[in-house]
Design goal:
By secondary structure, the chain is mainly α. The chain is 87% helix and 0% strand.
Length: 261
């Protein structure tokens, strides 16, 4: 009797063990399929070639963004400081000939404005009239536009990166997920251990797209504001030059100032 009970218990335990073996084997397979490290670098290395290309392009775009920010920040600060120094000179009781002499050889925007006005006065023979003021105003408008285009050079790249980087990252994500589904079909399994690495690699492309786009948009808006402030300084310089010419004309000293040059 006891032997029969013992045999039944042994058979029952054996059946439970056999039934549990497939699950244990599957769990072992899951552990074997899981990658050892899902760090960003390992995901990049294990990603598809197209996804890797997208990631490299986005990383390069991010590098370009920060390079433009550094270069334009230094340039705008330097030119703004020079423009303010020239404006301080124009605010004093100075004649056009003296202002042109002080700014001679300068390549900054305000120096170009002063030299352009002096050039037009020289071509007009030093005669003051309403036509001279109009011609000077036209010259100064052209110089302002040229200097504004020069200082805004490179900001268009930031706008392009900010607008396109998220879509480039999304393309990499779509491509990576598509490859993941192809891998699922070939492996004939929906096991998470098979699906997860490919999806993680695909989502990394979207993350890099946002990393490239968000700073580009923020930096573009910041540079746009600083460039607008610099353009306002150029407008002030043009106004001061026109006031200087008008003041000399009212004093009757404009011809003498040009002759003294």
């Amino acid at each position: 009797m006891r032997r029969n009970v013992l045999d039944v218990m042994i058979r029952w335990c054996s059946a439970i063990g056999v039934a549990a073996l497939p699950g244990a084997a599957q769990a072992a397979t899951d552990v074997a399929l899981l990658p050892r490290n899902l760090s960003p670098w390992n995901m990049f290395v294990n990603a598809d070639v197209v996804v890797q290309g997208v990631m490299v392009g986005l990383a390069f775009a991010s590098l370009v963004t920060w390079t433009i920010w550094l270069a334009k920040t230094v340039e705008i600060r330097r030119k703004t400081a020079t423009a303010k120094r020239r404006l301080s000179m124009l605010e004093t009781d100075i004649v056009l000939a003296k202002a042109e002499q002080e700014s001679r050889g300068g390549n900054d925007a305000v120096a170009q404005i002063i030299q352009s006005a002096a050039r037009e006065a020289s071509l007009s023979g030093g005669h003051f009239d309403d036509g001279l003021k109009e011609r000077v105003a036209l010259r100064l408008e052209r110089v302002e536009a040229a200097m504004s285009r020069q200082i805004a050079r490179g900001t268009g790249v930031l706008a392009t990166i900010g607008a396109t980087a998220p879509f480039v990252g999304l393309f990499g994500t779509v491509w990576g997920i598509m490859n993941s589904f192809i891998g699922i079909s070939e492996a004939k399994t929906t096991n998470l251990a098979v699906v997860a690495p490919g999806i993680a690699e695909a989502l990394l492309a979207t993350a890099l797209g946002l990393v490239a786009a968000i700073p580009a948009v923020v930096i573009y808006n910041h540079l746009t504001r600083t460039i607008a402030a610099h353009r306002a300084l150029l407008g002030d310089a043009s106004a001061l030059v026109l006031l200087l010419i008008s003041r000399e004309g009212d004093r009757g000293s404009f011809r003498l100032a040009r002759a003294a040059e």
